[in-house]
Amino acid sequence: MDIRQATIDDLLGMQNANLLNLPENYTFKYYLYHALTWPELSYVAVDPRGRIVGYILAKMEEEPSEEPCGHVTSISVLRPYRRLGLANKLMKQSQEAMVAHYNAHHITLHVRKSNRAAISLYRDTLGFEVHAMEKSYYADGEDAYGMRYIFTGSKAINDVERIKTS
Amino acid sequence: MSAAAKQRQLPNKEAGLFKELLTQYELKQYKKGIKAADTILKKFPNHGETLALKALTLHASLPFPITVGALPKQEEAEQMARTAVKKDITSHITWHVLGIIAKTKKDWDEASRAFAMARKQDNDNIPLIRDSISLYLHTRQYSSAVAGRHHYLTLRPQIRSSWLGLMIAHHLNGDIEEALEVYDGLMGCIKTDGASGPEKAQTALHVVRMCIEAGEYKDGLERLERFLRNDVLSARGEATQLKAEMLAKVGRLQEAEDTYRALLEQNSDNLEYYRGFLRTRGLDITETLEAEAVAKTLHALDLFAESYPRSAAPRRLTLDIAQGEAFRDRARTYLINGLERGVPSLFVDVKGVYQDATKMAVVGEIMEELVAELEKNASLHNDATIAPPTTLLWAYYYLALHLSHPSHPNPSPDRSLKLLGIALEHTPTLPELYMAKAMVLKRAGDPYGAAVAMEEARSLDLQDRFLNGKAAKYWLRAGDVKKAEDLVSLFTKKDTSAVSDLTDLQCLWFLTEEGDSYRRNGNLAMALKRYQALVNVFQDYEDDQYDFHTYCMRRMTFSAYMALMRYEDQLRSHPGYFRAAIAAIEIYLKIHDDPTLTEESISPEEEAERKKAAKKAQKAEQKARKAAHASGGDSGKKEDQPVPDEDPTGSKLLKTETPLEDALKLFAPLEHLASERVETWTIAYEIDIRRGRYLGALKCLSEAYAVDAEDPKLHGQILNFRRKLASATDLPEPVKAAIEAVFPSILPTETSPEEFNASFLSRHSTSPRHILGAAQGLLEIKRAIDPVPSDTLAEVIAILNQITTDNVPPAVPIMLEAVDFLRSAGAAPEQVDTFRKRCTDRAPLAWVLATEDEQKRRKTQGMDMDDEGGANGNGNGNVKADV
């Protein structure tokens, strides 16, 4: 599968994949908002016929905070394309873009408390940690785990360390 | 002071109230505002600007979405705004208000005109200019947008975005040179750029892109390298990709190659990086390569496969490139690797090579060998290792899908089902096996059996929305709308119906599939309703861009914005729109041909069903109302409800008196956006010929001919045109002359139509679609003879029968179409039945070809899916014998 940065032309395919896979869905305009604010951060996995079979929709936190912080709005891979490590690859690409283009210090995401497969992917494969529990985060009342991964090699940390050591 | 201005001036007291009115509008104190307006209007009922502001305030006070109770007020506000303009036609306020109201109605053209008029009255009004620029951009009036931007820049030259906005306007207007000049002008006159890092990066990237678009690679490269050096741009991703492309363009090939290597270090799964790398060595893998080039390409990709063992991309690419024995060896290794890792996607991954029939056959042979070896417990690696049982499981799975693939020359669904049966005995809990079974049955023409199988897959993992959606889709294919809606509702909002939630969420697949399902069931009204809902979603997609005309200037995401504008320009070339538009047009054509279809003739059962549905909808609405009430929202009163759907059953759509005009509206975007598709022209022919527009119809034939001269639908239409032409006696001379000049290049005059048809058939004697086309062509020829010869149907059937012969792949959808065609051609029920039987003999699992009664009986008597490979496992080749 081809893995590349998402373009405007990919957004409807991403919306379609999202509607097929996940219970949290968004209208087209929300995809536009991502692509037209942080064009470098969202990625797609594309099959040989050009169909979008996996995506990561990502952004930077807009709330002012001490360090720039990335956030995964949605990530999923169509069931027939699982076990290829696509989610892992999509996540890595988006994370590296967050650091390179926005100097991100860490990245956050929300996951359903019951979604053990996803939690294990984020924690065991991608190194995320649970840092918060959000009660009734989802529309159906389910709780969410707030998960976070701190970029160790990020420029932001290097800067901080440079200041500390100087 | 002019007369108009004098009339506009209010006495002190009222002037004060007028100011208050403005403030109250801005503070959203709408009630107070309206009161103030009324006080002024009492004394000065003809004061246009007050009337305009009252209209604006009233309009802003209305709930969204609009409720039943507020509807009259909305109309009142709109009417008031128009009256205000009439009362004071030279006021910028009255025009501005008219523009704002048109904008909220998404009537972009009217809004754009009103804003232009407002600006005429007040040229330097900044908010006015901003809005009108957005509207010019939105309605693609680029030269007016440039003029607006120019004007804005003279008023606000100290703001960076005034310059960059002008740059983008020039770019959209097709003048990149001017755009770059504006950018350089800005950079030349500011000392420090106050933009943030990401803002500078977005601007820089766009400047480079403009250079590339203008073909100025050297300039672009210089700028890009400077941006990279100064840390304006990050080397990650796009910037480096643009650099590689430009280096290749200016012939610095070694550097280009190194740059692509650097990109692959960043992302070794990006196919374009591999393609770009190979291009720098003169190897274009999008074209057919010579033997020597193939060897070089494979060698390069093999090295990458070693460097990036975790990336499938280079190994998968070699399967596209390699030929003959090299392909066989590589495919075998690739397949074994995938089977051993138990990757469910192996089939969807490898089937990309099936475009090449030879490769498809080779893959089939390899898989047969592998299955045989695995069944014997033999090693796949010429050593003592024995593959785990799951390898065989995945091999069965692969082979089952392979044998039922649509491009398989001789599919054997029976064998596929047998293989899956063995696999399921071994692992009865793997949803993928049931999904495969469903797919095989669907392709074999058994949508009901397929839905039952998909339901089993779903039941094994109820939390998985993908399986839920697939099961719903399969029920829709099987004609069970209710079951499908019940299923999807498990994952939609609880306070509204599944259909309305999925429509709000712009779920294209569901709208299309449910429309198709209704259409197959003969409910044309609901089919139209779903297709039109999808068409409306595309209108929303188009309207969505409006806010971004200003947003992107603020965020400086210029490249993404340009991509948006270009994307929206061709939005309706999307296959989702295309498919729904064609389906809806076909319904409109049907209505035109048979207006009795618009008269409802529903059976008592349907009537009862409909009442039940209406009750259910009412209940859902009440529930939603209660929920809203509980959450402190609207009160439960009827007039506080959103305006209900005024055509819940689609009957208004169906009862159209202008079906051809409705069809034309849907067709309009396709003419330019899908001109490369032959169906665009064959459907347009059907519209034009019904409108009696012979020249238009002929143009459609010519266009279709240019796309695919051998298209079977076109073939029938050519002969249809010939017949229609012969009976059109009142054509004006110039039209006749024009047709005579063009038509012979499509239907040669030197051969007889019979020969034309026979030669078409002999050219395509193994293609089911073309055989059907020839049968349709023959009917046209015969019908052109007066009186129609008595052997017509017999000859048509003789051609159709070829669809069912052994050397023609059994294509169930075409068989179904052929049955319909035969019926509409006036064949007797027995003749249709005999043909149907021939089809089911050739495709024994094709329950979709059985009569309604047969299908019903099968469903009520239950169906044991594990019965010997499905519906017709006893192998007597007759669907009905089984029931």
Structure description:
The complex is a heterodimer of chains A (166) and B (883). By secondary structure, chain A is an alpha+beta fold. Helices cover 34% and strands 28% of the residues of chain A. In chain A, a hairpin with an 8-residue loop joins strand 3 and strand 4 (69-77). Chain B is built from 46 helices and no strands. Chain B starts with a helix and ends in a 23-residue tail after the last helix. The model of chain B is unreliable at 864-883 (pLDDT under 50). Chains A and B meet through strand 1, helix 1, helix 2 and helix 3 of A and helix 12, helix 26, helix 31 and helix 32 of B.
Characteristics:
heterodimer, A: 166 residues, alpha+beta, Aminopeptidase, seven-stranded mixed beta sheet, 7 strands, B: mainly alpha, Serine Threonine Protein Phosphatase 5, Tetratricopeptide repeat, 0% strand, disordered C terminus
Overall tally of domains of chain A: 1
Poorly predicted tracts of residues of chain A: 156-166
Largest interface, by Cβ-Cβ below 8 angstroms: which chains and how many residues each? A-B, 49 and 62 residues
Query: What coarse outline of chain B follows from CA principal-axis ratios?
Result: globular
How far is the N terminus from the C terminus of chain B?
Answer: 93 Å
CATH superfamily of chain A: Gcn5-related N-acetyltransferase (GNAT)
Total count of strands of chain A: 7
Number of helices of chain B: 46
Percent of residues in helices of chain B: 55-70%
Helicity of chain A, in percent?
25-40%
CA-atom Rg of chain B in angstroms? 33 Å
Q: Judging by the overall fold, what is the CATH architecture of the domain at 9-122 in chain B?
A: Alpha Horseshoe
Q: Tally the helices of chain A.
A: 5
Domain N-acetyltransferase (chain A): 1-152
InterPro entries (chain A): Acyl_CoA_acyltransferase (IPR016181), Ard1-like (IPR045047), GNAT_dom (IPR000182)
Protein name (chain A): Putative ard1 family protein
Organism (chain A): Naematelia encephala
